[in-house]
Sequence to fold (345 residues):
Amino acid sequence: MSTDFNLKHLLGIRELSADQIVHLLDTAETFRDVSKREIKKVPALRGRTVINLFFEASTRTRTSFEIAAKRLSADAVNISVSTSSVSKGETLLDTARNLQAMSPDCIVIRHSSAGAPYHLARACSAAIVNAGDGAHEHPTQALLDALTIREHKGRLHGLRVAIIGDILHSRVARSNIYLLSKLGASVSVAGPGTLVPAEFAGLIEQGVRLERRIEDAIVDADVVMILRMQRERQTDAFFPSMREYAVHYGLHLNHLSLAAPDAIVMHPGPMNRGVEVSSEVADGGRSLILDQVTNGVAVRMAVLYLLAGAPGITEKPERQDVSDSTLRNGTVKKQRRKRSLREDQ
Fold:
């Protein structure tokens, strides 16, 4: 497989090749070890600037991008849209041009409108990372999901994945379907007919199987992925009540008996406990929800490294770049400088 990443922006999974996806996942595995160390920092992006521009509320994604940038030694700048010039009527394009004038290396954007990251990519020379645009895509979520699956299953090819819930409004569903299909997994989706329209599979990806009952999607599944109810994007009443949704489409412990014996459960968060998933499942031994959060930092470190790194970077980071010896050498140099200063005094 070629190690040439050859990508300026990360706008969606649909545009990526299978080789590019695997290269991202392999790079993320390299960075996953950094979070386990006493000193959780490497100098890979020292002197680089990453701007997090979030037009929607976020906890996991925004925080993990900030942590990822700081662990790579980049300068992370968070812009709160509610207190920015956007609240005064400035357009997205003008905001982008003003940010570009400050010479950032990477802009991470989350926006309620599909296509907003593409708009920025045309206006900025900085690398643009899509952190979720409307109901379109959420590429880094799909990547961290894939990394979590691969960590626990050892592969993606040949796995059976069931995605359950609000498919219609879910950017997570779209990005996961693109990624899983490219890497050889088979995907089934299930949910209320109003949230899983019959034409969905044809519009998104050929080969996706639609089921009306979640039980049919879960049968023999290796991975059961639950989606959050996207109430903030729903303009109509797509089901009678949350209670009725929980009864017919919420994941309960008895459902897992239909899946493969070693099936895992995933959720992109935030969870609506007792609606999309019961607490027994969310907190059970098969749940990898917190593993997803952990892998989110590694994936975003990989994305920032490959997009905002030095010109010409196409390879995975060398082991010595993130090794304990590098950290020890840096500490020794600091100690020598301190001794030298004391002697001069």
In short: The longest helix spans residues 324-344. Confidence is low (pLDDT under 50) at residues 232-237, 311-315, 319-328, 330-334. The chain has twelve helices and nine strands.
